[in-house]
Task: inverse folding
């Protein structure tokens, strides 16, 4: 939230003038936004998906399928963190021309986002096993985008 | 066993660098009885230069044709051939890069995870504008030039007394038309293909930048080849340089004729005062003893 | 084999309810592992896919649209539209369409449009004796207009998916005439149904009222001018003008209309953050998917295949449209643009179609898909606002589908509808 406002200020900066660092800096911030927002999206279940089939199935097979899906997401989050680390480490010595910082920094959101995705999807699985209510399967359609 | 090397290029099919790598593939096939060939992914199909450079390092792709400029932050030695007015002519650039200096720069790729195979032309960039011919530094005063998003280019244009405006390539034509900028800078083929000559008809050949292209291989992929195959790849790459230059010269000639036929006013420039104005730029960018030494060695070839 | 893994695992995951972004990412990951390429490429491309400055325009436009829904800008534009066309046959139906045309110009999002105009118009129409399904049908289909009239973040997504070489300014301009054509087509359908069902006519309000309403809507109209004029004249980039749109919308709603409270502001901001993360993660994952398609030479094979089938561009364009309509029934718009552009753009180019023209077709075609079950965000919103079942709305929507399809065919086969306006502005 606060970050979003800050982001807007970046935008205003870009409008006023274009020093060569504002673009890459805002892009870097956007990376953090998207990956953290995506991890939270996993937790709250607001990602866009095709849940027609899942919704019409009876309770038990539905829970099995959704759990398989959550396991796949967990694995992907883990891979994201691990390979994000490899990318960051492998490009740490490259200097970004505009910001004069290591190129590898741009891959750090992958690591943090990946770890959070693992944690949040494990949470989903555990909650389901414990019989707790699920975060809503579908997002409020008014919040989704065309 | 058959090996298909995957090679990336940002230029479209038919562009001299793309054709040169295809030619290299033909040579390789002949030398290795069809065992090794190259598949070229043109038109940045596999990503922008920055991305393919990383892919090459990690061995996702095998070969990559990029400009020296995006390698500046990875292989410092590549800064020197990109310095303004470092070469006095196309012939000077080619002989330097063919000789021991070029060899040393290509060798500097290895610690970063790449094997430098060949250096291609990227053409000589010169200024064009809509106001008047540029012959002296005085003529540059107050003119607004579009430059690529690069500190080196911004500093260079400002040091020459003009105003640098970084801008996307696609916006330059309308920028020239509406007077948002007075000029830009590029080589013959780009000046022609972008149609900028229609709205900026003074082309002044100061040849401020000849930052060349490089064909490099992933160290990961390179180490998988036998020593004989490595030699075959190197030789084929060297042969492709001749092919590339042939194609490039033809392209330049063709573009030049089109532009001349359109009534563009072309003038030569005595670069001496321009070179003098670059002293602070060299101080700032060629700032280590290694880079200063490379600069000196190139200057020595021009005496 | 690699392609089977790529598409097979994608479809399988999609069916078990995995979010689209993860379907794309996991399918790419499995394929890369099968091919023996270092898997980090998937994440490099994901990162590259979201590290594009122009992408920032998308959340900005979404945010601006959201602010306008929650502020009063949208309502005033609707009021203006009501006074302009309310006295024609089918009265409020026509108002609904006109409102989408005016408001769609600034919201840029069909979903924002459907929720804003649906929220205003559907209760009004129900109150004045219109059937609810009719109100929903119109609201849903006319919000496709928002996709066509600038700004349209889907056009930006298309430009980026096409390699970033296609002019966003040209795309924006190219969408205008097709947008108006669609408005006319839907108006005709609305008139036809209204006549058949015998809906009432409202009296003409008089020019004085129109003038007063136009005055009230001026801030909204200025905003359209800023966005369109700014991008077109090259003074701002799309990203910059989208940022200005937010600041402007905030100032107007907070200080001129004084229509938005702190809660609304927070809700709009949070909504924008969620949508942004959701859409852009799909864009990132699709970049990895698209990289693999290029690596496996799918577009090139596609062109060969198409050329071996027929050499008539007319047939190819029809086939593409049918295929896109089919895909559009199952998937949402932005992921489809991102996935199909790298495959189809080379094909249509090989058959001589202008990339700007194809962008317009793609957005219009997939926009229709937003209004069709089983996956249609706009249809869902329309039904949710009216509290009716999707099946009820679908039963009577056919005249509107038909109108939209006719416009789609016209836009496909008459390139000038899309390309004439950009050529005038050049
Ligand atoms: Na719009
Ligand atoms: Na649909």
Result:
């Amino acid at each position: 939230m606060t970050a979003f406002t800050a982001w807007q200020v970046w935008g205003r900066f870009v409008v006023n003038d274009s020093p060569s660092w504002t673009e890459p800096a805002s892009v870097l911030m956007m990376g953090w936004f998207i990956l953290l927002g995506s991890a939270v999206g996993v937790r709250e279940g607001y990602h866009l998906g095709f849940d027609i089939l899942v919704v019409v199935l009876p309770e038990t097979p539905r829970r099995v399928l959704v759990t398989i899906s959550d396991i796949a997401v967990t694995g992907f989050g883990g891979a994201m963190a691990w390979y994000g680390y490899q990318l960051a480490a492998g490009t740490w010595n490259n200097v970004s021309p505009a910001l004069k910082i290591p190129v590898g920094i741009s891959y750090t959101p992958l690591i943090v986002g990946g770890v959070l995705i693992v944690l949040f999807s494990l949470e989903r699985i555990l909650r389901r096993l414990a019989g707790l209510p699920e975060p809503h399967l579908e997002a409020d359609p008014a919040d989704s985008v065309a | 066993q058959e090996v298909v090397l995957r090679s990336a290029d940002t230029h479209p099919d038919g562009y001299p660098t793309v054709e040169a790598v295809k030619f290299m593939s033909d040579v390789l096939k002949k030398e290795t009885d069809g065992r090794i060939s190259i598949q070229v992914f043109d038109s940045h199909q596999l990503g922008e230069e920055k991305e393919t450079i990383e892919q090459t390092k990690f061995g996702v792709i095998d070969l990559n044709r990029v400009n020296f400029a995006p390698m500046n932050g990875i292989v410092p030695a590549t800064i020197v051939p990109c310095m303004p007015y470092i070469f006095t002519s196309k012939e000077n650039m080619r002989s330097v890069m063919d000789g021991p200096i070029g060899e040393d720069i290509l060798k500097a790729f290895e610690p970063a995870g790449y094997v430098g195979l060949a250096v291609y032309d990227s053409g000589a960039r010169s200024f064009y504008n809509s106001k008047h011919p540029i012959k002296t530094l005085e003529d540059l005063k107050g003119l607004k030039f579009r430059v690529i998003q690069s500190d080196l280019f911004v500093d260079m244009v400002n040091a020459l007394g003009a105003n640098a405006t970084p801008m996307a390539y696609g916006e330059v034509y309308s920028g020239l038309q509406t007077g948002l900028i007075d000029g830009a800078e590029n080589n013959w083929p780009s000046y022609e293909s972008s149609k900028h000559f229609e709205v900026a008809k003074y082309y002044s050949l100061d040849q401020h930048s000849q930052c060349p292209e490089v064909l490099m291989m992933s160290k990961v992929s390179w180490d998988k080849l036998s020593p004989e195959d490595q030699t075959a790849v190197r030789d084929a790459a060297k042969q492709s340089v001749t092919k590339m230059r042939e194609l490039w010269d033809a392209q330049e000639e063709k573009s030049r004729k089109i532009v001349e036929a359109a009534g563009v006013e072309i003038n030569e420039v005595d670069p001496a005062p321009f070179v003098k104005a670059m002293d602070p730029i060299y101080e700032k960018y060629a700032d280590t003893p290694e880079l200063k030494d490379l600069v000196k060695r190139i200057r020595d070839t021009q005496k | 084999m690699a392609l089977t893994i790529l598409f097979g695992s994608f479809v399988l995951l999609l069916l078990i309810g995995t979010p689209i972004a993860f379907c794309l990412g996991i399918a790419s990951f499995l394929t890369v592992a099968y091919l023996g390429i270092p898997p980090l490429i998937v994440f490099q491309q994901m990162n590259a896919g979201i590290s594009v400055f122009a992408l920032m325009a998308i959340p900005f436009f979404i945010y601006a649209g959201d602010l306008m829904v929650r502020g009063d800008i949208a309502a005033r534009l609707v009021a203006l539209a009501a006074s302009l066309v309310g006295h024609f046959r089918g009265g409020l139906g026509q108002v609904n369409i006109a409102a989408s045309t005016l408001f769609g110009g600034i919201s840029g999002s069909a979903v924002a449009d459907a929720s804003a105009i649906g929220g205003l118009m559907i209760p009004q129409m129900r109150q004045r004796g219109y059937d609810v399904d009719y109100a929903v049908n119109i609201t849903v289909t006319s919000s496709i207009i928002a996709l066509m009239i600038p700004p349209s973040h889907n056009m930006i997504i298309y430009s980026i998916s096409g390699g970033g070489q296609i002019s966003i300014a040209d795309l924006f301009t190219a969408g205008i005439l097709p947008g108006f054509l669609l408005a006319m087509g839907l108006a005709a359908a609305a008139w036809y149904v209204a006549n058949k069902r015998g809906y009432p006519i409202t009296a003409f309000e008089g020019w004085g009222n129109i003038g007063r309403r136009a005055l009230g809507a001026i801030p909204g109209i200025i905003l359209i001018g800023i966005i369109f004029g700014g991008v077109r004249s090259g003074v701002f980039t799309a990203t910059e003008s989208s940022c200005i749109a937010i600041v402007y919308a905030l100032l107007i709603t907070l200080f001129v209309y004084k229509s938005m409270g702190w809660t609304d502001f927070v809700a709009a901001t949070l909504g924008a953050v969620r949508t942004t993360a959701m859409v852009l993660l799909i864009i990132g994952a699709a970049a990895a998917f698209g990289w693999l398609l290029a690596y496996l030479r799918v577009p090139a094979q596609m062109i060969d295949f198409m050329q071996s089938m027929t050499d008539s561009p007319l047939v190819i364009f029809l086939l593409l449209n049918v295929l896109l309509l089919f895909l559009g029934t199952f998937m949402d718009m932005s992921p489809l643009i991102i996935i199909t552009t790298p495959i189809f753009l080379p094909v249509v180019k090989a058959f001589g179609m202008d990339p700007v023209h194809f962008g317009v077709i793609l957005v219009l075609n997939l926009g229709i898909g937003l209004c069709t079950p089983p996956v249609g965000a706009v249809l869902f919103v329309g039904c949710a606002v009216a509290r009716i079942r999707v099946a009820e709305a679908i039963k009577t929507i056919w005249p509107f589908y038909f109108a939209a399809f006719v416009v789609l065919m016209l836009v496909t086969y008459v390139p000038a509808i899309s390309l004439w306006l950009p050529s005038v502005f050049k």
In short: Chain A has one domain: 24-135. Residues 137-146 of chain A have pLDDT under 50 and may be disordered. The helical segments of chain A are 2-16, 22-44, 52-56, 59-90, 108-129. The two ends of chain A are 23 Å apart (CA to CA).
